[in-house]
Amino acid sequence: MSARKKCPQCGKINLPDDNFCKDCGFELKEYGPEDFVIIEHLKASLYSSILCIAIFIGFMILISAALISQYLVQAIIPFLIIWPIVIGFMVWATRYLRGLSKIRKFIITDDYIEIVVPHKTNFKVNWSDFDSIEITKRESITTVPTTDAVILGPRFVYFTLIFKGMSYEQNYEFESGKDFKVRTKKKIIAALEKYAKEKGKNFTGWKWKDKRRVKKALKD
After folding, report:
1. How many Cα atoms are found within 13 Å in the side-chain-facing hemisphere of 170?
2. What is the pLDDT of residues 25-39, one digit of tens each?
């Protein structure tokens, strides 16, 4: 008897013959036992970020109320400085957090590599199209200039997957922690290296210094 299918989106248990989840309608596509399949969402990160933003806004409201009660009219000047920054941050956070609750996929089969991330164009490349995979890493730190100094903001880490052939090159960049979980990113890179070696493709670029992490990530 075939095992029941657990929906990766809502967690509902479905019958073996179900192609779509009865609860949320998610497609329950099966892959071969040798395929590498990541299907996940970042709802936990979304909820924790919303909680942090709510605490921050509440703190700024308390500061504003204290300034007004203490300095009355004189508090208008810092009030007009602080709140445009707060509102700008809220607008940026709303855009940045968009899509975290939606499903993202990273699939490696014997024929192709497919990447699906919300708000990005779906990416698919066949193994027969390229001869090598190169992975590069870059970091970006947001800054907020002030009259006295520059305030450093969050640090973002990006990985670019470069697929090269004789007359072919395709790139895909994803953000660690937003497009895929940090732990998932480790599994993805380890799986790409493993599959590339099995298929005789060159694999260069960013690698972990500790190879034990690669083996552990694939076992998890």
Report:
1. 14
2. 666 666 666 788 888
